[in-house]
């Protein structure tokens, strides 16, 4: 017999929310894992001693986390979604029927609390990840991404800078006198030959325009992105388990290489608070500059940063050979171009360039003068004043380990940015101002780390066949049999280097870096990475930890 459910609400019910939230529920586990009681003391300074009671600071932070965990960047939707979820209500400490805070309370409280409160929460989550063994700390991959600001390009207005009121008054009087001097000017566009009577629209730039609603947002673009107002998220990720160790908001037009000296002390400080010493920084070519390389040295860090695409380590293909004994260039015709002076780069005032010039008399009768010399009759070459630093870094990047580090960087930090943008509500900043944008990025990163934390499971390694070194040898034997030997005809040089590397180091654990040979010889990058992961699995079965592999 067919049944039919008739809805009839009970007048009196006995209901306990905790009984209806499963033990393995995400928010139940998070409630047990994350202790936010420290917020009561850290936010005490923002409240007075009289007046109505505010929203509980712990509840506020939990609601913020819910928004980023659920990929919601609207305060209204955070409240409406939380009210419909029993597990979220349990996480917040609310019961069925209890009214949640008003959505405007979230935005006001977010503005009230300082950046240090959100940073403290991020560090608290980071510490949980460290205590669980998810971070090695040795190697950090750094990258940036443009995050759209909560402001429109078409709403930008022109900047008006007046030194004082007298300047404005004088300009106004001059305009009035100019208009009075020509009272009979024809208003007929034909008489004035004013075909283009409409003023040309000037494209807005950061120097001439700004957004009244968000003055900190900056116009910028990059390949594949439209020109619009952005903030730039700078982020560092640990290479062991891809945990975010640092994130900060910068203005959208701020270059990566100028941000790195700011990033490094804060990144190393985050790790030093947990007694972890950072050793290596992996970054792309956008972070390359003399100032950035000097910052790495000053912080005691070893960097792997490729030189910019426009950088030239040698000019031999142009017909100029550098003579380091006399700091000069010599052209193929034997003419000397000695060092003349140092100039500031026009596009970057903090960057200096070395100028090398020949004399007009030397180039006067040269047969190559027409195709070589400039309009003034001499040849000019420009080098970076930091060329020795670039050369030193480039040699490191082009080494066997350096090539591996570049592949490791892109496979570490870039997927994390993709997750933040697509799954933790960082596709757009929903607040105004640089400080508020920084709060959003910190919360998004904290939510990402929380997801990693609750998913992470410590996997016990199987006992080594004889010892850790023995297991490592087994992994190398597998690598040799599966990769090196089948392709011996096409990679004899790799075969030789492979054997020499191990003989010199006597199978030390650090020789795991030699699996970069696999990625180098593989014609397809995906194939190289598949061999790498298989090799890693073999080594871990032999007792080598994931932290040692990375």
TrEMBL record:
Protein name: IS1182 family transposase
InterPro entries the UniProt entry points to: IS1182_transpos, Tnp_DDE_dom, Transposase_InsH_N
Highest taxon of the lineage: Bacteria
Ranges for region Disordered: 177-223
Comp. bias regions, Basic and acidic residues: 177-202
Domain (Transposase DDE): residue spans on this chain: 330-454
Organism: Mucilaginibacter celer
Taxonomic lineage of the native organism: Bacteria, Pseudomonadati, Bacteroidota, Sphingobacteriia, Sphingobacteriales
Boundaries of every Transposase InsH N-terminal domain copy: 16-111
